[in-house]
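User: Second chain of the day. Same drill as before.
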Amino acid sequence: MIGDHRVTRILFLLLLTMASNAIARDVAPANEPQIGVGAQYDSTHVYVKAADFDRFVNSLTSTLGGKASPRIPSTLTPTPSKADFQFILTPVGTLSTFAFSTAIPYPFGLERTGWLVTDMDLALKAARDNGAEVIVDKWPDPIGYDAIIQWPGGIKMQLYWHFKAPKYDPLEAVPETRAYVSRDAADAFITSILGFSHGRVLSDDREADATEIGRPGETFRRVRLESNFGKLQVNVTDGHLPYPFGYEITGYEVKDLDATLAKAKVSGVSILSTRYAGADRNSVIVEFPGGYIAELHQLRAQ
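Assistant: Same format as last time:
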């Protein structure tokens, strides 16, 4: 008869092996292909009312530079809908802007960004393998395919692929997608994004100055990531956020924050937060006509 201690040890080793196998199945293989194309192809999604469309586009390009594509009436969802679409290329980030003339089908309007991928089927497999949900499965649009995924923590984004690959110049400065997640979901979210994007951690500061998110005198965990899809700042909080923090989708790096804010004010942009002077950057939260909220920052010389 096997002794109790030997039975316990065998059961422990068996459970450990089962757990290790389960983790291995959940982690994407190291040799998965790179599916990110480049930061200039990844756009922030902005939904505005038709009456605000021109004011928003003019204000954004006057503030950040760049130009807008022709406005195109389109059906961009897998179910019937109508919207005007305009692509905005700036030196510091790309935006996809939508004004719907019909009701917006769910869950459109909740996705934060659109990421261009090299292969849609591979991208959806990689998303699922790394813990994301495909909440709107692949559908065709006039120039390619799209899908919407949701990461642990509830962050939603769109993936897209074109029949004919676009070609844009590299950005002068790569913007940061800004994601606010709970402490409960933070590690799962970061692991999923890194596995999908083949990204890397630039910094993981567990005692960052919370003045940056409107809570002076406190600290929070701030994780900065980078991949072929661009930059991502993950703000891990308890959700006790003063307005407007948490509403900003993207942070734009500008060469001269004072000059940019001067242009912004002339262009109808509202300044929503006090200026934050951090260890590596000065930043402020602004709102463009039409309601789009963003962060602007100037890096400090290191």
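Helices lie at 4-26, 53-64, 120-129, 186-197, 257-266.

User: Great, on to the next one.
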